[in-house]
Specification:
The complex is a heterodimer. By secondary structure, chain A is α+β, with helices and mostly antiparallel strands. Chain A contains 5 helices and 10 strands, in the order αβαβββββαββαβαβ. Chain A has one domain. Helix content of chain A is about 20%, strand content about 25%. In chain A, the strands form 2 sheets. An 8-stranded mixed β-sheet of chain A has the order 9-8-5-4-3-2-1-10. A two-stranded antiparallel ribbon of chain A has the order 6-7. Chain B has 8 helices and 13 strands. In chain B, the strands form 3 sheets. Chain B has a 6-stranded antiparallel β-sheet with strand order 1-2-3-4-6-5. Chain B has a 5-stranded mixed β-sheet with strand order 7-10-11-12-13, with helices on both faces. By secondary structure, chain B is α+β, with helices and mostly antiparallel strands. Chain B folds into 2 domains: about 120 residues, no CATH class; about 110 residues, 3-Layer(aba) Sandwich (Trna Endonuclease, Chain: A, domain 1), CATH 3.40.1350. Classes of the chains: A alpha+beta, B alpha+beta. Chains A and B meet through β5 and β6 of A and β2, β3, α2, α3 and β5 of B.
């Protein structure tokens, strides 16, 4: 694992991941607005606007604290799920602030819509394709170096979960273990709803 | 017995017939459909950055079809923190491909049965490309501040009216956006900033290669401005298509 001026501070991030952390704040879920084409632009293109709610997502940003109770600067967990597709395709991200940008250092994908491809399967000896829930572990991706944490790398290496989470609580427990964060299971559930159809 | 690649081969197992069967199995696994509660999903062989396969959803309405990326492209970009960048990119890509982007979906609508395969390929590729482009722009975001600073220096040296920001330049085969064009008495100068990563260097390389193939009298002087000369990869290849100049020497080099 490397760090220092030529790359990201991977050792610091490893320490952050390994230390016990807690939930600092009690945030609310957000439902970010999706992009909708403007009336004028649609009219100019000679078409009707297409309005759908199926892509609405719920997102929760959780600030973290260390054992002393102080918040950890720049570190947060983001939980993301579809508003109208509960218990489908849910993700959790542990990110840190670095040089003015947010860098995702570990991710959990539960019941994803599509298989994940481990293009570095030969190097890690694990499965080349994961057809189900999985964790993009920091330790594996750190061995790939800086590029694994850039947006184009986006944590390419993942390992499968042995058990598929059936309930939101199961998902949050997986996230607690993967990120070493206590208290996520006590957060308010998201305002997800059953299918629109 | 070994194969041409030097691998051990069991002739009783690998026969022309069985390798054909394997090839057929791989081909059929490259893309397949899945039932879901709302609409069938098509898992494609295309990958978003990070390794998730691009998935399409398919719906039928009055004999025509509606193909979408299910909003997965927007979601991937959202997880990178690139929602706003994605929206701009997806809108441009949709327009370029004669499909649509709205409500965070990249889609084609009212597709007849005989055009469905084409529509699915175009939507899947647009979704993948939109997320990749978003990732590249996010990776290069850091250099935007340096670019602003450099443009101010150009304005002072050459005059505001001579410095064109983000012009579109037609190369031999494609149209490209460069960071700036400086209109000078001889051939105008194109300027692109290069960050110390392969994506940035390769992106500048591709556009300058194409522009370098213009006829001499339509050509430009091309400058690749290096933010970090020591750490920039592929310098020798980049240097074959443009003049390399360090950030602090850019104004002098272009004025010379």
């Amino acid at each position: 694992m490397t760090g220092g001026p030529l790359g990201y501070p991977l050792n610091e991030w490893a320490s952050l991941l390994n230390e016990s952390k807690g939930v600092f704040n009690w945030p609310d879920w957000q439902t970010p607005r999706v992009f909708v084409e403007g009336k004028r632009a649609a009219a100019k293109a000679g078409r009707s606007r297409f309005v759908s709610h199926e892509t609405e997502r719920c997102r929760l940003h959780v600030q973290l604290m260390d054992k002393s109770g102080a918040s950890i600067e720049g570190a947060e967990v983001c939980l993301m799920m579809w508003r109208y597709r509960p218990m489908e395709d849910m993700s959790a991200i542990l990110s840190v602030a670095y040089e003015g940008k947010s860098v995702c250092i570990c991710r959990v994908d539960v019941r994803p819509a599509a298989p994940h491809i481990n293009k570095h399967w030969r190097r890690f000896g694990g499965p080349s394709e994961i057809n189900g829930s999985h964790v993009h572990q920091f330790s594996d991706n750190a061995t790939l170096g800086r590029k694994a944490f850039d947006p184009f790398g986006n944590l390419p290496q993942a390992v499968p979960l042995h058990t598929e989470p059936d309930h939101l609580r199961d998902f949050l427990q997986v996230v607690e273990r993967a990120f070493n964060v206590d208290g996520l299971t006590t957060l308010h559930p998201p305002p997800t709803q059953e299918s629109l159809l | 017995m070994t194969s041409l690649l030097g691998l051990a081969v069991n002739p009783t197992i690998v026969t022309p017939r069985s390798i054909s069967a394997i090839a057929d199995e791989v081909a059929r696994s490259l893309a397949y459909s899945r039932e879901s509660a709302e609409a069938p999903a098509i898992v494609t062989p295309l990958l978003y950055p990070g390794g998730s396969r691009v998935v399409l959803t398919l719906r039928e309405d009055s004999g025509s079809f509606f193909v979408t990326d299910g909003g997965h492209g927007a979601r991937e970009a959202d997880m990178m923190g690139g929602s706003r960048v994605f929206q701009r990119v997806a809108r441009d890509l949709a327009e370029a491909n004669d499909i649509r982007f709205d409500s965070d979906l990249i889609f084609d609508i009212e597709v007849p049965r005989d055009a469905l395969l084409t529509a699915a390929i175009v939507v899947a590729n647009a979704s993948k490309t939109a997320v990749e482009t978003t990732a590249l722009r996010l990776a290069n975001r850091k250099i935007e501040g340096r670019l602003d600073e450099l443009l101010v220096r150009f304005d002072r040296q050459f005059g505001v009216e001579k410095v064109i920001r983000a012009p579109s330049i037609r190369g031999a085969t494609e149209e490209w956006e460069v960071d700036a064009m400086i209109i000078t008495s001889g051939r105008s100068a194109l300027v692109d900033l290069v960050a110390a990563n392969a994506n940035s260097a390769n992106s500048v390389l591709a556009k300058y290669f194409d522009i370098s193939r213009l006829p001499e009298d339509e050509g430009f002087r091309r400058f690749a401005v290096l933010l970090d000369r020591e750490k920039t990869p592929n310098l020798s290849v980049l240097g074959a298509t443009s003049r390399l100049v360090e950030y602090d020497q850019a104004v002098q080099a272009i004025a010379a």
